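BUG-212 | component: ligand-complex export | severity: low

The export step for 3'-deoxy-3'-aminothymidine monophosphate jobs runs without errors, but we want the raw record kept on the ticket for reference. Input record follows.
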Amino acid sequence: NRQSNESRGALIVLEGLDRSGKTSQSNRLLSFLEGLGFSVEAWRFPDRNTCVGGMISSYLANKSELDDHTIHLLFSANRWEKRSLMESKLKSGTTLIVDRYSYSGVAFSSAKGLDIEWCKAPEIGLLAPDLVLYLDIPPEKAAERGGYGSERYEQLEFQQKVSQQYHILRDPTWQIVDARLPMEDVEKQLKELVLDSVTACRKGKSLSQLWL
Ligand code: NYM
């Protein structure tokens, strides 16, 4: 067992447009780290298994209507309700691979026209990721990938706006990976980045909070 009481797990976030390959890659990263003997879990936001998550899920399925501000705050609340569990997992040495996080929250809501600073505010105090992996794909290419589903937001024109918002949100600490490459090539790059981050956290890198 490679865990020790002192070493914490890494908070690793995958971001990108719909159909950029986040879910496939997070599954691959999970198997990779498990194979190396690390304690690791794959999470995703929205977490549709909570009460708040149920409201989000119904909104995304077009089964309910909510004001843009209201749904924004529900997405944020859905992260807040998992914050303490997230912190205890990380502190006990479990690495979390998280499919979407606060950046999705801000990119999707600000793409509707909400003020970006207003969108960021409810995220302040959530745990900051140790690593943000951005799967970069032009919206047109993503749209070609077997088409979108029928959920809200899964339309080319809206995804183009989301892509612009992600560009504004990006900071130099993000790792941008070309998601047009073959899956295996993307996977190889992600594995290296993830291993570096897990190693840095085990060596004592401290946990911080959004937004820095
Ligand atoms: N989404 C996701 C948001 O609008 N705000 C958020 O905070 C998060 C986490 O939900 N189109 C959007 C992005 C997706 C949709 O995500 C559902 P997924 O990964 O398809 O389950």
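Assignee comment: Attached the raw record above. The chain is about 50% helix and 10% strand.
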